[in-house]
Structures are given as C-alpha cells and as structure tokens.
Amino acid sequence: DAGITQSPRHKVTETGTPVTLRCHQTENHRYMYWYRQDPGHGLRLIHYSYGVKDTDKGEVSDGYSVSRSKTEDFLLTLESATSSQTSVYFCAISEGQNYGYTFGSGTRLTVV
Amino acid sequence: AQSVTQLDSQVPVFEEAPVELRCNYSSSVSVYLFWYVQYPNQGLQLLLKYLSGSTLVKGINGFEAEFNKSQTSFHLRKPSVHISDTAEYFCAVSDLQGSRLTFGEGTQLTVNP
Question: Which of A9, A97, A98, A102 to probe the B interface (max B CBs under 10 A)?
Fold first, then answer.
C-alpha cells in the first residue's frame, strides 16, 4: 500500500547480531503494529504503538523491542537474532479499531 | 481476550463453484469481526468487516460474510469463485475498546480450473 512502507524487504543475518526493521507511514495514523507470520500460526502480534513513545507488548514480544519517536516511524529491533526469529514480519497501521488495518508488504528475515 | 478458529486450513474448489470459509470466535464481550485476504508475496488486504447492524456484510470482489452471534461465527462466502481468488484468507476479531486484532491461522483457498 502506498501509505505504508517497510524496509528492508529481505534480510539475511547471522545468529547473535542485532537487526532493526523499519515501518514508515504517510497516513498520520495513530496506531502502528508489528506482526510476524509463520506457517500454521497465522499472524501473531509482537508489539504495537498507540502514539509517539507509547508502546505495548503483544503475545510474542520476547526477544523484540520497539521504538516510536515520531508518528510516521515504528522500528522493530531484534537485540540478538535467533533462528526462531526467522519469519515474515508485517507492519500495519490503523486510525482506530473500526477502520481495520492497512498492511505493509512485509520483510522476510532469515537468521542463519 | 478473544480468540479465532478457522476451521479449515485448506479449501480446494473448482472455478465457478461456491465456497464457504468458516470462522468461529471466542469472546466474553461484544466484538468487531474482519476478513482479510493475502495474495502470494503480498501483505494483507481488508475484504470486509462487521461492526454493528445488519448481520450480512458485503465486501470487495463479490465476497460476503454473515455474523451469527448465537453460534459465534463469521463465515465467509462467495457464490462463484475465480482462479484469481486463490489466496490465503484470515479471519480476525477485536473487542470494541481494543486497539489490536487477533487473527486466525488462515485458510488457503485454491481455485482449480
């Protein structure tokens, strides 16, 4: 979607290295989310943000941290990547719950 | 907390046949319900949503879903599918005050010629 971009689109990294994924929006939406998608698990929420500097944990937050220093950017950091964090990561934005989400195109992360 | 169960992980159908993708949810409070579609190597797109009012909701690409509160279900239907409908479909739920969606595990719809 034109209003939300994720970078990088693909990344291969080594176990134990830090990794940061970026989500950028141009819609000025309040809510931003990070999900991971794995076969057989659907999408699972990692962290979300309800405003600048306001974040909360999702159901699979261990090993991940986030930051939102401005409305348009939401960063996901893997402090020390592990093979279990190999996944496709999706960012989403929303004006509010009854509007649904707009998703980015995803980042495919491989930890070797 | 809410949860979602998509009853079929894979649904193969022939082109122009009708299809139903089943979704049940669990919640102790009133909910909003959503269906999303994911085409290969893409993000998810909103198909339709139920917020309130009529229990039959129409979405894009000829899909519709019916909210059944007594059966806690929100099944997705299309009367005649096309090859281009081949994709993975996700059901999702949130409570009325919540700021996040809970997704089901997805149903892979494959439309064969």
Answer: A97
User: In the numeric block, which tokens belong to residue B15?
Assistant: 């082109």
Q: Where are the beta strands (DSSP E) in A4-96?
A: 4-7, 10-13, 19-25, 31-38, 42-51, 54-57, 64-70, 73-78, 87-94
**A42-51 and A19-25: which strand pairing?**
unpaired
- CB contact at 8 A, A111 and A82: yes
Identify all chain A residues contacting B105, using CB atoms and an 8 Å cutoff.
Answer: 40-42
Spatial distance between the Cα atoms of B79 and B19, rounded to a whole number of angstroms: 6
Distance CA A50, CA B57 (A): 28
**So what's the pLDDT on residue B27?**
87
Spatial separation of the C-alpha atoms in residues B59 and B39, rounded to whole Å? 16
Residue range A21-76, pLDDT digits in tens: 999 999 999 999 999 999 888 899 999 999 999 999 999 999 999 999 999 999 99
